[in-house]
Amino acid sequence: MKVVHADRTPVRGAKGIAGREVHVYAQAINLIRCFAERAFQAVSGDLSLDQLRDLIHPRNHTLLIQRRRAVLIHSRVRMVAAAFAVLTPLWILIDVLIFDWPLWGWLAGLRIVASAGFGVLALRYRITDDIRSAWRGLALLLAVPTFFFLMSHPMLNQREVMGIAGAIGSGYAFLPFVMVAGLSVFPITAVEGLLFALPMLAAHLGAGLYGSLVFPFPHYLGALWLLVLITVVATLAGMSQLHFMMALVDQASHDGLTGAFGRRIGEELLRIQFSYAQRANQPLALVFVDLDNFKQVNDRYGHDEGDRVLRDSAESLRSVLRGSDILVRWGGEEFLVVMPNTTTDGSLVAVERLRTHGLARRPDDTVQTASVGIAEFTEEHPDDWPALVELADHRMYVAKQSGKDRVVTGATVTAAA
């Protein structure tokens, strides 16, 4: 069967002109994008447009980044909550000294309630790697002082507080500034910073409409502007933390030579995907790839050539994978491909496409081949992910023993192309 590529077919008439116009338009868009990326990198240093997108919104964060960030946010929520649980009731003594009864009694009651809320967060909120749970924890942490501010502000505003009592009491009006500045402790995106700061901004504005402890209302708007600026600075600090964390995770999780995930991180990601597949009873294919006769490359041509073949092989593997697939360097010349929501037949499509194009060129200009074993969760029903890996590994060895350059699944052995 002869295959005719569409891009090599002569084009004529209106359709041909339209096709050329679309091609020129696409080239122009690519040139503009490249120029924008280079201009942005010239200003921002090592920050790319894709990284900036991840710092603005968490939608495209990888599962690994989500999990690492969730653990960090959880731990800091508990740390800050523990500190405030201890410090909040200590101020009761000051309230007793400067305020009259029953004002200090009401404030003391509020402080005890707030301290209890912080204590529950510090002691009972479990640290997990679920990002939604981390968001809830941070929201609850900020909800406690917001509630305290909304309840204490009318109490203080209804009573005439003068002298030193008025000076100390005015400090209650600055609680939103303290809490918004506290966002800088957490690795957050720009969108998250805005959403978490909104309740405090709204409470501050509402307090100004009700009546300020410190400013007349026109001056209160200036204070609100200052609060917005502090929100921006705190959010930028949180974004800087997130960027640093993402760089560390990326450096620690990827193999420096091939760019694939390292085995330790790969096992963690595989465990997560296996749990998802197990709960939803969805397919999960594992493709175990071992380069054939790779030791000969190192022995005859040196490790530099061996490294080149490994890099080219990893790049070829990535070229046939989807965005949701996970490439792991499992050993020296072994790769494991994790393909979520993919059956054996689906994984074979990618593997055969790879074998048709070849993995890489060896130093003697021959094609680098590989022995491949495939195992799939819904067909095999293993008890855990190591059993599924072991099954794919075993089938890879069967492919080796059968003559190499073969693919072995549960039902078939595909011979060399």
What does this structure look like?
With 417 residues, the protein is an alpha+beta fold. It has two domains: 63-252; 263-414, 2-Layer Sandwich (Alpha-Beta Plaits). 66% of the residues lie in helices and 8% in strands. It has helices at residues 13-44, 49-56, 63-90, 92-98, 103-124, 131-157, 163-169, 175-181, 190-210, 217-253, 263-280, 294-301, 303-319, 344-357, 377-380, 385-401; strands at residues 284-291, 326-329, 334-340, 360-361, 367-368, 370-376, 407-408, 413-414. The strands form two sheets. The chain has a six-stranded mixed beta sheet with strand order 2-3-1-6-7-8, with helices on both faces. It has a two-stranded antiparallel sheet with strand order 4-5. A hairpin with a 4-residue loop joins β2 and β3 (334-340).
SSE layout and pairing:
Elements: H1 13-44, H2 49-56, H3 63-90, H4 92-98, H5 103-124, H6 131-157, H7 163-169, H8 175-181, H9 190-210, H10 217-253, H11 263-280, E1 284-291, H12 294-301, H13 303-319, E2 326-329, E3 334-340, H14 344-357, E4 360-361, E5 367-368, E6 370-376, H15 377-380, H16 385-401, E7 407-408, E8 413-414
Parallel strand pairs: 6-7
Antiparallel strand pairs: 1-3, 1-6, 2-3, 4-5, 7-8
Helix pairs in contact: 3-5, 3-6, 3-10, 4-5, 5-6, 6-9, 8-9, 8-10, 9-10, 12-13
